Amino acid sequence: MALLISFRPSSACSISFPFIVKKTSSCKSAKMGSFSTNNISCSVTSSASTMVAQKKLPILLFDVMDTIVRDPFYHDVPAFFRMSMKELLESKHPTSWIEFEKGLITEDELTRKFFKDGRSFDIEGLKNCMRRGYSYLEGVEGLLNSLKKNGYEIHAFTNYPIWYQMIEDELKLSNYLSWTFCSCIFGKRKPDPDFYLEVVKHLNVKASNCIFIDDRMRNVEAAIELGLKGLQFKNADLLRKDLSLLGIDISTNESQDIIEYSS
């Protein structure tokens, strides 16, 4: 049973969520692959029993665009504007999209300054174009499903504006992960080291207890420099192999998965 617990621990430690909660009388340390599992117990006032919260490590941090989800900006948006990618990059404002990703400007402000020359365009048409372009990359949804079934805590760690809500509406990524670390919420973007440090601080674990997956090598390198485990995403099959080498359990009941996906 998964339970979200909100309380203030002692000054010696702080605890973040989610936890897998089990009844137990003692707390033991265990080894999972090459990672140590921290079992943190806490008292919860209850007339029935005392519960112990356990956080399974490592924690998985996934980039979203072109790691989990096809990015329509590169595939569909130039055609929407009837431009080549080169023409679009030359015409758009150099910082407006970055500002939008960091939550520094609103959608209306993006509409006004998306192009350097201030030309108007159909913002709703652009959003619809992107909605149609969102899809899971081949094999990734099955991998996420396996990781979830095996009890791993998974978070999005992505550079994306408030439009991440459109991705959620279309693909329901929250079935597998939490939209915890979005640039538009934290006001920071990868590969800014402060963004990575903010993530580790929020999770309240050692950086080495996090595995970060991203299609962009410079983002992976930034993670590794700060002590996280880093993997570059190329395709789902290679990622499965890379995760297995790090001791991640991705085994699953394939026949049961087929039944669930077809139902």
List descriptors.
13 helices, 10 strands, globular, 3-stranded antiparallel sheet, disordered N terminus, alpha/beta, disordered C terminus, 263 residues, 5-stranded parallel sheet
Shape: globular
* Biggest β-sheet strands, sense, barrel: 5 strands, parallel
Mean pLDDT: 82
Q: Give the helix/strand class.
A: alpha/beta
Question: Could you state the oligomeric state of the chains shown?
Answer: single chain
Q: Give the neighbour order of strands across the main sheet.
A: 8-7-6-9-10
Measured between the Cα atoms of the first and last residue, the distance is 23 Å
The tally of beta strands, per DSSP, is: 10
In terms of DSSP E residues, the strand content is 15-25%
Q: What's the quick description here?
A:
The protein is of the alpha/beta class and 263 residues long.
Structure description:
The protein is of the alpha/beta class and 263 residues long. 38% of the residues lie in helices and 15% in strands. The chain has helices spanning 72-75, 77-80, 85-91, 96-101, 107-113, 123-133, 140-149, 164-171, 183-186, 193-203, 217-225, 236-245, 254-262, and strands at 2-3, 19-23, 30-32, 35-37, 51-54, 59-62, 154-158, 178-182, 210-214, 229-232. Strands 8-7-6-9-10 form a five-stranded parallel sheet, with helices on both faces. Helix 8 (164-171) links the parallel strand 7 (154-158) and strand 8. It starts with a strand and ends with a helix. Residues 1-53 and 254-263 have low confidence and may be disordered.
